[in-house]
Amino acid sequence: MIEFLPESQKQLLVAKMLGQLTVEDYEHVLIPKLNEIMGEYQKVRAVIIVDESFTGWELGALWEDAKYGLKHRHDFDRIAMVGTSYWLEKAVKLGSVLIDSEVKTFDEDKLNDALVWVNEAER
Q: Does a structural domain hold residue 51?
């Protein structure tokens, strides 16, 4: 499941990944939101929180992530990954292959630092 947090505004998307991500999470939740932001601001800044309940992706969801990442590889400005789970490392490795963006990881208690970093003035 993907949950958007209230800190999301303008070109900033703050999302929490919980449980197992499904194709429906991508097709009906994440991709429409990303397309909406890209349509208005062109580039997305994202803070992705990998919740301790996160167990990974369904195979179809992983495929959707890869397709979207390759298609929009230049449409992300910065991505902050927040968490301490095993999956954080996997998500960062996957994202860094697919997306041409600056990616930085933060411990789960450093959400505010992640928000500051991702919102720093454009390079």
A: yes
Judge contact between 88 and 50, C-beta under 8 A: yes
Number of Cβ within 10 Å of residue 41's Cβ equals: 14
Question: Which regions of 18-91 does DSSP assign to beta strands (E)?
Answer: 20-21, 44-50, 56-57, 76-82
Query: Is the Cβ–Cβ distance between 46 and 76 less than 8 Å?
Result: yes
Q: How many domains does the chain have?
A: 1
Strand, helix or coil for residue 36? helix
**Residue 3, pLDDT above cutoff 90:** yes
For residue range 58-113, list pLDDT tens digits in order: 888 888 888 888 888 899 999 999 987 766 776 676 666 667 788 888 999 999 99
Which residue(s) pair with 98 in the sheet? none
Instruction: Output Rg (C-alpha) for the chain, integer angstroms.
Output: 13
